[in-house]
Design brief:
The complex is a heterodimer of chains A (99) and B (425). Chain A contains six helices and no strands. Chain A has 99 residues and is mainly alpha-helical. The longest helix of chain A is centred in the middle third of the chain and has 13 residues, at 56-68. By secondary structure, chain B is an alpha/beta fold. In chain B, helix 2 (41-54) runs parallel beside helix 11 and helix 7 runs parallel beside helix 8 (227-238).
């Protein structure tokens, strides 16, 4: 059954069909990048501040402040500028579900 | 545990895995299978997250030759005497606890019709989706005279492990006043700022242990990653110890002269070293070519939305082996791709169209143990292609105070601890 479903998916969405409209990246997809510096599920084992246990509002507010430059940072300003406000809210929403 | 028992354990586990996979149990509901080749930054990430996303519905198998995987990131700190090898080695016990089947062996062949991967230990593993993350192989003889035997005399140390220790021993044995030649290759290659961080950590060691020594970087390029930041910091901390010779002065390195322990440039200049670290031209790890996913460049072309091979459907290629530009060949990039590909492979097996991806890269370099610099970028799928998001990322500011460099150095160590925990921890 799964095989058939997969085959249908391949027919419907052939690889390389870049112009076909797909779903936008989910909050989970966006948030996965955070863990490489902030630790798995946002739990940091070392010197980088953890982000686990923070509320959706807190994370979104901090990210927006990094993005605008209102909050000074070494690298987070450069990173936050890579996301739209909508994306920031989506990743913050996902991160809060890990609490 | 001693080395021998670990090795025996590895052989035993791969042999039993071979039996399991060669004869699937009858009567069991067939689960979809994701097989990942390579236990480094890309592959180990993909295996962990494929299991996390796929849960009980999907079997995940990771094939990796080494019982302990040593990372290239932070191996420059080992060369500078700032870390030991154990601190950059990672095992796969946690991966097993997560219900990922780990087979220690070298993947040697892929049969895309039967959908199997074979290993040198005799295992045959069936897959529904295959993720290849084999890293790099050296292109022997691309620099004339540089073959596997030459790498024993002039270590590349561009795969961490034995080669790292070989280069370290040579540095330790060198007399004060010796010249260390570092010869980086043309783009593209693994870890673009790596050779220059290496010059820095070696300079840190030499400044203390052998202060009359010199480091000569004989480059096959005219510019390099984070160049102004490295140049400023070299002058500040190491004076004239590090000299950089661009390609325009001497031509690229085309040959090694083993009798004189020298590298030879296209213009015929010989640069002799007491220690020579030749970082050779590279290509995708062997299994990529064996699977038929590489093109003439030696690297694997992929659709950047899902990192699925454009040559062999059903096979994803990630990490250094893939043509991932605009993303650089870095451990962070590979891990970022591993997460996206894990989600894409699980979605595809579940009959769902993978959503658009989002990738990131942040790469720290340490110029001294307390002076760090970085480059970062966010990548998005826009208008049918992968782009670096405008306005995001870039390098650390050029005229930042030392306190900012100290913060970035602290974060460099923090990054290594976090990404290691995220992947192997």
């Amino acid at each position: 059954m799964r095989r058939i479903a997969a085959a249908v998916a391949i027919l419907m969405f052939p690889p390389g069909a870049g112009t076909v409209a797909h779903a936008e990246p989910s909050g989970r997809t966006l948030a996965l990048s955070c863990f490489s510096c902030h630790g798995p599920a946002g739990k940091s084992p070392d010197s980088i501040p953890g982000i686990h246990g923070r509320s959706e509002d807190f994370i979104a507010r901090e990210m927006l402040a990094f993005r605008s430059g209102e909050r000074r940072a070494t690298v987070m300003g450069r990173i936050a500028k890579g996301y739209t406000e909508q994306e920031i809210r989506a990743l913050a929403n996902y991160l809060a579900t890990l609490n | 545990m001693t080395k021998i028992t670990r090795r025996q354990f590895a052989v035993a586990s791969s042999a039993s895995a071979a039996a399991t996979f060669a004869a699937p149990a009858v009567g069991q509901a067939a689960k979809a299978r994701i097989v990942v080749v390579g236990g480094g930054f890309g592959g180990a990430t993909a295996a962990k997250y494929a299991k996390q996303f796929g849960g009980d519905q999907i079997d995940v198998t990771l094939i990796e030759p080494n019982v302990t995987f040593y990372t290239c990131p932070f191996s420059n700190l080992v060369l500078g005497g700032l870390r030991n090898m154990a601190s950059i080695g990672h095992g796969f016990d946690t991966m097993r606890k997560r219900d990922v089947t780990v087979i220690h062996g070298l993947a040697t062949a892929v049969d895309t019709r039967k959908k199997t991967v074979k290993t040198n230990e005799g295992a045959t593993v069936l897959y529904d989706r295959l993720i290849l993350s084999p890293g790099i192989d050296v292109r022997w003889e691309a620099v004339q005279g540089y073959d596997a035997a030459a790498a024993e005399q002039m270590p590349h140390a561009w795969k961490a492990g034995r080669q790292t220790l070989l280069l370290k021993k040579q540095l330790e044995a060198m007399d004060d006043g010796g010249v260390v030649v570092i010869a980086p290759p043309l783009n593209p290659f693994r870890c673009p700022p790596g050779p220059y961080e290496r010059a820095s950590t070696i300079a840190h060691y030499l400044t203390r242990a052998k202060p009359k020594s010199k480091i000569l970087i004989v480059d096959s390029k005219d510019k390099f990653s984070k160049m102004p930041l490295f140049m400023d910091a070299w002058k500040k901390f190491y004076g004239s110890m590090i000299e950089w010779i661009p390609q325009r002065t001497d031509g690229p390195v085309t040959e090694v002269d083993l009798a004189n322990n020298a590298v030879v440039t296209d213009f015929g200049t010989k640069h002799k070293g007491a220690v020579v670290n030749l970082i050779p031209p590279q290509q995708a790890g062997k299994i990529a070519a064996a699977a038929g996913v590489t093109n003439r460049s030696g690297w694997a072309p992929v659709n950047h939305r899902t990192f699925e091979s454009t040559l062999k459907p059903g096979i994803h290629v990630i990490g250094d082996a893939a043509i991932s530009s605009p993303m650089p060949k870095s451990g962070f990039s590979a891990s970022s791709q591993g997460k996206i590909v894990a989600a894409a492979a699980v979605d595809t097996l579940n009959g769902k169209d993978p959503a658009d991806p989002s990738f990131a890269n942040t790469c720290y370099s340490l110029v001294t143990p307390s002076y760090g610099i970085s480059v970062a970028k966010i990548y998005a799928w826009r208008g049918g292609k992968l782009v670096g998001v405008e306005g995001s990322g870039g390098v650390s500011p050029r005229n930042a105070p030392d306190s900012v460099r100290a913060d970035e150095a602290r974060y460099a160590y923090g990054w290594y601890a976090s990404i290691s925990a995220d992947i192997w921890g």
